[in-house]
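Subject: sequence -> structure tokens, single chain

Hey, anyone have a minute? Need the predicted structure for the following. Not urgent.
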Amino acid sequence: MLESLQQPSTEDALYLFLRMSENQINNLVYNILIDGTRKCGPDNTKNLSNEGTIKRLRHDVYTYNAMIRCFCEDSLPNDAKQLFMKMKETGCSPNNATYNVLLHAWIKEQTI
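Reply:
Had a minute. Here:
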């Protein structure tokens, strides 16, 4: 994967992430990866959400916001809403950015 001469891709980033040791991975690295894979579609976001659980990272407001933004940008407002509800259930408080992303997406999709 990384041996090719082509420009590194998000698949390369995910490959490296999955090979990092437990003590190298923190929420900052995880959030950067989620934010960077937004262009790859919602399946990557869902997979990374599961990776966070596997790596025992607790999702923070930035993690949830990045994932919610991914779903909103992919026109999946229901997935964004489900994640928003999960966010609240886990005790993570939404912030202004969370509400801004959701409002913008729901108005755009007219699903309010």
